[in-house]
């Protein structure tokens, strides 16, 4: 009897183990089938999405080193760079811009557009409320603003600022591709190059030019030898008095030692430079060669840089011509 009971218990246990194994295999099969189905569905959805979206309208490497993908030609743009605003209008696509920064002032069409704050960290909520297809910004746009907008589904294109004058052509080409004006961009670049060729001097002069962005209490700021403003000065046939500097910072001691023939002062620096005793002994001050210029012509890397080039060229070559006649 004990043997019968033991045998029965053994059969029950065996059946239990077999049932458990069967259930495990069933669960494994079901899980595998589910995973395969999900994978197939995901792949199908991806293919469907790609088929719906098609090829991107334009893809480029932005100022942050990211691959920026513009899926469709933007029809509404918030531009948070006065420089790029000028480029867009020069390309004939200004009607796409629906808002700009507080600093945008050219062309006159931008004066009545809604404002979204400063260049570095604009009002994200104001931008989102406008629901633009694209936000167009320059290299000084903060990553925090970039991330906020991208996380909220607003595409941002960060166009890299170039350090050379020739980089202007690349900026125009990139912006033209972004706004769907490649042919106009090509024509604009060709026109600018022709204008530059007519201005660039065949013979360099010996005159030194110092570009004064800011001066006085908060320090000396100029255009060093690695900036596109340096290229403007040199292409015009002059020498940059601050060519030995890098970037935009300088020192009073270096300026006095350079003693430039001409000083180009922005609207922010002219009064300070012409009245501050620190600069009174400079040759340019004594000779009345401190020239007031529009900073936007020099500091915004756009088509109006050609006007800046002509200003410097006319300045130094008129002096050279007068000296030649006097001799």
What's the layout of helices and strands?
Layout: H1 2-53, E1 58-61, E2 67-70, E3 77-79, H2 82-90, E4 97-99, H3 124-130, E5 134-138, H4 143-151, E6 156-159, H5 167-179, H6 182-199, E7 208-212, E8 220-221, H7 228-235, E9 239-240, E10 249-250, H8 252-258, E11 262-265, H9 270-275, H10 283-286, E12 290-292, H11 295-299, H12 305-326
Parallel strand pairs: 3-4, 3-5, 5-6, 7-9, 7-11, 11-12
Antiparallel strand pairs: 1-2, 8-10
Annotation keywords:
single chain, 327 residues, alpha/beta, Rossmann fold, 2 domains, 12 helices, 49% helix, disordered N terminus
In short:
The chain is an alpha/beta fold and 327 residues long. It has helices at 2-53, 82-90, 124-130, 143-151, 167-179, 182-199, 228-235, 252-258, 270-275, 283-286, 295-299, 305-326; strands at residues 58-61, 67-70, 77-79, 97-99, 134-138, 156-159, 208-212, 220-221, 239-240, 249-250, 262-265, 290-292.
């Amino acid at each position: 009897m004990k043997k019968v009971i033991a045998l029965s218990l053994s059969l029950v246990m065996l059946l239990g183990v077999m049932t458990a194994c069967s259930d495990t295999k069933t669960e494994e099969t079901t899980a595998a089938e589910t995973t395969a189905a999900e994978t197939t569905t995901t792949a199908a959805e991806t293919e469907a999405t790609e088929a719906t979206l098609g090829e991107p309208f334009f893809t480029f490497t932005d100022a942050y080193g990211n691959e920026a993908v513009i899926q469709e030609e933007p029809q509404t743009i918030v531009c948070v760079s006065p420089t790029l605003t000028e480029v867009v209008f020069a390309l004939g696509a200004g009607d796409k811009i629906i808002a700009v920064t507080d600093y945008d002032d050219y062309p006159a069409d931008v004066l009545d557009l809604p404002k979204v704050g400063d260049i570095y960290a604009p009002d994200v909520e104001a931008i989102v409320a406008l629901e633009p297809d694209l936000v167009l910004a320059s290299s000084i746009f903060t990553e925090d603003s970039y991330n906020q907008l991208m996380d909220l589904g607003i595409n941002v294109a960060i166009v890299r600022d170039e350090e050379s004058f020739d980089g202007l052509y690349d900026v125009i080409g990139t912006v033209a591709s972004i706004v769907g004006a490649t042919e106009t961009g090509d024509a604009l670049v060709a026109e600018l190059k022709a204008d530059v060729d007519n201005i660039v001097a065949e013979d360099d002069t010996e005159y030194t030019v110092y570009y004064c962005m800011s001066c006085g209490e908060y320090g000396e700021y100029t255009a060093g030898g690695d900036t596109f403003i340096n290229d403007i000065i040199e292409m015009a046939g002059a020498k940059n008095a601050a060519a030995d500097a890098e970037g935009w910072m300088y020192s009073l001691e270096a300026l006095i030692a350079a003693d430039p023939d001409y000083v180009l002062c922005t609207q922010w620096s002219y009064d300070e430079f012409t009245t501050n005793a620190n600069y009174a002994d400079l040759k340019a001050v004594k000779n009345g060669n401190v020239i007031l210029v529009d900073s936007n012509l020099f500091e915004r890397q756009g088509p109006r840089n050609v006007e800046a080039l002509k200003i410097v060229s006319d300045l130094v070559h008129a002096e050279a011509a007068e000296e030649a006649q006097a001799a």
